[in-house]
Hints:
Largest sheet: 7 strands, mixed
Oligomer: single chain
Number of helices: 8
Number of domains: 2
Number of strands: 17
CATH topology of the largest domain: Aspartate Aminotransferase, domain 2
CATH architecture of the largest domain: 3-Layer(aba) Sandwich
Amino acid sequence: MEIMNIENFDHEIPETANLQETQPESPFKCMIKKTEGFYLFDEKDRKYLDLTSNNDHFPLGFLQSPKTSGFFDSECLKSEDALNLETIIKEKTTYDGILFFPEKQELQDFLKKVIDSKPQNSVLISSLENYKLDLTGKKIAGIPLNDESPVKTFINKNTAAVILQIAQIKDSLEVAEIDYLKLVRQYCSKNNALLIYDTCSISPLRLNRGLFNVIESIKPDLIMASRGLTLGTPFYTAIFDKSIVNNEQLTKKTGIFSCGYFQANEFIKNFESYELYISEISKYIEKKFGELAEIHIAIADFIPHGMIFELVSEIPSWEFAKAAFEKGLLLKPLSQYKTLLCPPYNIDKKEIDRAIEIIHNILEEMSLYGRLD
């Protein structure tokens, strides 16, 4: 089936947008000296509440120090924490296959083996990532996220796998909708195609949909997760049912620093308490921004997705981020009028109130000097 020639079908996986093309100068100019709690400190001891690096690298902020002692596991030196992590993931999920990788390319190499073992000849991908799979005899094509038409048209008996990057952050934030995921799951099951979630771009509880951002009623066949499980230690994970993978593919991967396993264990052990707190604090954040929007008409929209938020305002996002930085708040510009907020999972209301106060003051000042006209 020549799916690559079908009209209006994406032939290439889109590349991530480069904000430098529209704004060559970063709004942040400082040298970071240390971290503590939810804050960064520069060389002049000025502190900044960080709402930028918590999406993937530091989902718990900077409250915990990484376990520094450890070793790189190998065939000879195996980490006890690695076995413990396998056990706890199996206990917390319904999957029985777990593999760990030190680099994303190794994870993608494993994914290639899995998909190559399927007899069907096409793979559909919805992602901003450039996958280097080099699949044998299979055609790869991109589909848009949350568009039901390609799902109904192109997932069929010739489809080996569908890979979904469930949170796509480009010039805006797009998250896979529940009804869309249900439809994809339905068509994959009907046609014996693998449904694969790529959650490497977003930390494992960020969408508040359960561990690894997965809703149990829409179970994918394989999940790819990333270093949001650790405190920034390079760490990639494949979680799957053993029934979908040949035995020879279940080769133990080595080369991860052993403290990464320890950090991931601690993170998942506390999954239930984090999940409850995320639900509570995300509602508080949404409430506070709703109140702010009633005061300032410059706030056009505030879109929550668990513990990741998109702020749409009448202020250019780079100007907004620069003004926030000067007042001690780090925000991430997305596009001309869109800003991303990624608070740590365990941020408290005091820090949220501080962020709200800073944004309120920025809007007040810009209104006072007529910069919003």
